[in-house]
Amino acid sequence: MKHRVLVLAVLLHASLAFAEAPLQFAVSTGRVPDDPNVNGIRVSFLHGKNESVRGLDLGLLSVSETGNLSGLGLIAGVGKVSGDMSGGAAISLINIHDGRDAGLNAAFINRLGSPDRAVNIGFVQIADGETLLDIGGLNVSERSTVQLGFINVTDEIKGFQFGFLNIAGNGFLPFFPIFNFPKSSTSSSASPPRQPDRPLPGRSDF
User: How many CB atoms lie within 10 A of CB 170?
Assistant: First the structure.
């Protein structure tokens, strides 16, 4: 009987070691259980760091870090994602995401990588890559489909900008109030090649 209990204890310990934690508590000094991956709920106070979180991420006065996020992040502090957010929502005071995002980013400040499949809502939003929809006070990106804000700035707009001041590298004007959209590409179309001159009838070459 004792041997069976011992074997079961060893197997249980091994399964827990290799499985994702269904519930984890994290503070600045460590996490319980000490698993890099969470599939369920992570609760952090002051600081939490994982390789991945799938499910619900709750942070209280916390810098909550994860490699990849899939689910819902509610952080009363800073939410940092060094990899990708594959789906869900990240709602924080400050979002700092380095990779590609799909879903919703909502924060006072969104500092993003390439949220090309996400809706971004915030007072200040700066993206290094492409964004799908930005709604905020100041929206800055390399490329955007739609920007709605007080000041909108992008190198390339695919859809339109609507705001007090709109700046787009490919806009119909470089900057314009109220709205802006891509300039037409018809001007770049080439004219048909010129046909060689034909000799006039009734004349022969000497």
Answer: 16
Q: Which among 40, 48, 112 is positioned nearest to 75, based on CA atoms?
A: 48
Please give the residue range of the domain that contains residue 136: 19-184
CA 145 to chain centre: 13
- Scan for tokens 């190198």, then name that residue: 155
- In three-state form (DSSP H/G/I as H, E/B as E, the rest C), the secondary structure along 78-147 is EEEECCCEEEEEEEEEEEEECCEEEEEEEEEEEEECEEEEEEEEEEEEEECCEEEEEEEEEEEEEEEEEE
Residues 6 or more apart whose CB falls under 8 angstroms from that of 2 comprise none
Please give the model's pTM, rounded to 2 decimal places: 0.79
User: Which conformational region is residue 103 in: left (phi greater than 0), alpha (psi within -120 to 50 degrees), or beta?
Assistant: left
Q: Confirm whether 51 is domain-assigned.
A: yes
Query: In this predicted model, what pLDDT tens digit does every residue of 71-101 receive, in sequence order?
Result: 999 999 999 999 999 999 999 999 999 999 9
What is the per-residue pLDDT across 136-182, written as a single tens digit (0 to 9) for each? 999 999 999 999 999 999 999 999 999 999 999 999 999 999 999 99
Match 């339109």 to its residue by tokens.
160
Is residue 192 included in any domain, yes or no? no
Domain tally, the chain: 1
